[in-house]
Amino acid sequence: MGDKFLDSIQGLRELKIFKADAYQQTKMNEASEEFRVITMKVLVMQLASTTIMDIVAYTGAGIGVLIAIISVLKWGLSPFSALFLILVAVEFFLPLRALGSAFHVAMNGASAGQKILSLLAEEETPWGTKEVTNPNIEIKDVTFAYNGHANVLNDVSMTFKEQGMVSIVGESGSGKSTIVNLITGALRPQFGSVSVGGELLETLSRESYYSNLAVISYNTYIFNDTIRNNFKLANKDVTDEEIYAALTKVNLADFVEANGGLDKVINEDALNISGGERQRLAVAINLVTNKAIYIFDEATNNIDIESEAIIMANIKELSKKKAVIVISHRLANVVPSDYIYYMENGELLESGNHDTLMANNSGYAKLFTTQKALEEGYMECNYEKA
User: Fold this and answer.
1) How many domains does the chain have?
2) Fewer CB atoms < 10 Å away: N or C end of the chain?
């Protein structure tokens, strides 16, 4: 019930925009009624068990008191011994009554315990012990399906070298994010293989592989700490000069200087900065990590066009020394790529640089042309309004 209520509160803006608040209220009323019915059933069970325990406890205590009185009158038991027997009789049944009162708490504990046990019972993604020798990544004949359902990847093969910018593009649902999860080791393919430096990913040490890997996504987490300490989480030896150099690369240095400098505290869930500033800060933090492989998964979402151009220029510069993998819906960002993989419905349909794919006049070219026309139309509308 708490989850449903929180979901409704967090989505209140969307409910108002789509005029669905009345519908959501109906659903909340139904959930509340269901919660009330279940709660009443639990309380009835608890009340019944407590009543039974009370009857047993008080009856037992009464019998103990009666025996003590009879013992004094008929068998010459001393008053002090009788008092002790009465007190013991009452205390004997109190734990039993407390157990009945704790029935509801015990049910909550048992439910939570089952969830914890089910979580612990889940199989961990297998890893090995081999060290990473070079950052060349190869995806070979990979087929993948979530929970055994329809395949989201079908016989996909890709290569990512230790230097250069390689982009994966396609419409939503084409399998781009699944590719990222396979590269990071979060998922394992049902068929085919993912290898790094000629070694299968599952044979590598997770610590060794992750020490060479940086992933910057649209929802990279920024910790509730100062800007400086967020950078030091990524690189404990980073200097203030290096931090400002990274902030300059993402067009954020002036903002930081004007708002408390590197000692500015980022609130929980980065609520005291905008979405675009959060994204740029996440990119800057990862630029000081000095990893061998960088994955930018929609890392320029929520960023204005000017800042986006600056970031993409820095990503291209980074690719001269590092392996850079870019996932983007906006094809204008991947034009400078050394190599582009174009996907549709889980299949790799085209590959090559931008000029080659445009000359093919197939899926990539059509998607690029459509996006470009939409963006130019949007800019013309804004210009006319201005």
Assistant:
1) 2
2) C
